[in-house]
Amino acid sequence: MFHPAVGYNSGDIHAASLADLKGWNRLIDARPEYFVRMNSATDLASVKASGKIGILLGQQNSSHFRTLQDVDSFYGMGQRVSQLTYFHNRLGAGSTDALDDGLSDFGGEVLARMNELGMAVDVSHCGDRTTLDAIEASIHPVLVTHSNCRFLVPGSARCKTDEAIRRMAEKGGVMGITMVRFFVGYGGRVTMESVLDHVDHIAKTAGVEHVGLGTDVDLDGRDVKSDLDGVRYAKKVFDLTEGLVRRKYSRADIELILGKNFERALGSILKPA
To answer: Hey, what long-range contacts does 248-256 have (CB within 8 A, 24 or more apart)?
Structure first.
């Protein structure tokens, strides 16, 4: 399963988000032999057996939700995940904003509508208070699709606190570990072993049932400043798996980390077919 999500933050965000989803739908519709859009909990179970690539459509900013009707409209187009904020918007604050007043009244209304429809709430870029407010307000698990542990990278506001990780886990959520250097470590070499340290920390803090992968990096990496030392990005999942074996994770736990945790959480959020 592949989860593409872009954070549109300037200009006409509604129009850009609309064009993005239309583009993905055109691709999926044009090549049904390769792709299937993930619309329901039922699709989670069937896509692997089909031999196709499941596409879980999302956005990394919810500013395109100008009204509650927009939540309905984008859901109708296939959007199943929405990150509430990237930077400050009408819903709440982003992690890099100087002030975080938490989830707004409108943000709470949007979140409730997402819960009702079966659209996953993502708080990866949300500020600390907005993150906690969203987890508290949601009746379904809240996802952190791509973030790391602030305990290991104290200077990064984009990484999540142990409190947020525990609260997320209590609601049944999952946190996807990124392989973007700034969020993995700082100073000296930052390697796949550093990524594994974040897996270990979440497993220790909240339980292995709440760790996943949200690498935020494609097969070619990003650039020299963002990439990890010594990582073969085309083989990153294989190398991570070998690291999990070295750190004595069981086969069952490795399967959870590599996808079954997110599958479980999404299965409780998305509606049946």
So the answer is: 249/208, 253/203, 253/208, 256/208, 256/209, 256/211
Judged by phi (left if over 0) then psi (alpha if -120 to 50, else beta), residue 267 lies in alpha
Across-strand partners of 35? Answer: 53
- The DSSP code for 272 is P
Query: Which region, left, alpha or beta, applies to residue 229 given φ > 0 means left and ψ of -120 to 50 means alpha?
Result: beta
Give pairs for 169-172: CB < 8 Å, separation 24+. Answer: 169/205, 169/206, 169/207, 169/209, 169/210, 171/135, 171/138, 171/140, 171/141, 171/142, 172/140, 172/141, 172/264, 172/265, 172/268
Q: Is 253 helix (H, G, I), strand (E, B) or coil?
A: helix
Task: For 233-259, write each residue's pLDDT tens digit.
Answer: 999 999 999 999 999 999 999 999 999
DSSP 8-state class, residue 34: T
List CB contacts of 151: < 8 A, sequence separation 6 or more: 161, 162, 201, 205
User: CB of 83 within 8 A of CB of 59?
Assistant: yes
pLDDT digits (tens, 9 = 90+) for 75-132: 999 999 999 999 999 999 999 999 999 999 999 999 999 999 999 999 999 999 999 9
**Tokens coding 235:** 């083989």
Helix (H) or strand (E) segment spanning residue 40? none
Place of tokens 């938490």: 102
Backbone angles phi, psi at 121, to 5 degrees: -90, 125
213, β-bridge pairs: 177
Positive or negative torsion for Cα 167, 129, 112, 270: negative
Q: What is the DSSP string of 46-99?
A: HHHHHTSEEE--EES--TT-SSHHHHHHHHHTT--EEES-SSS-SS--BTT-S-
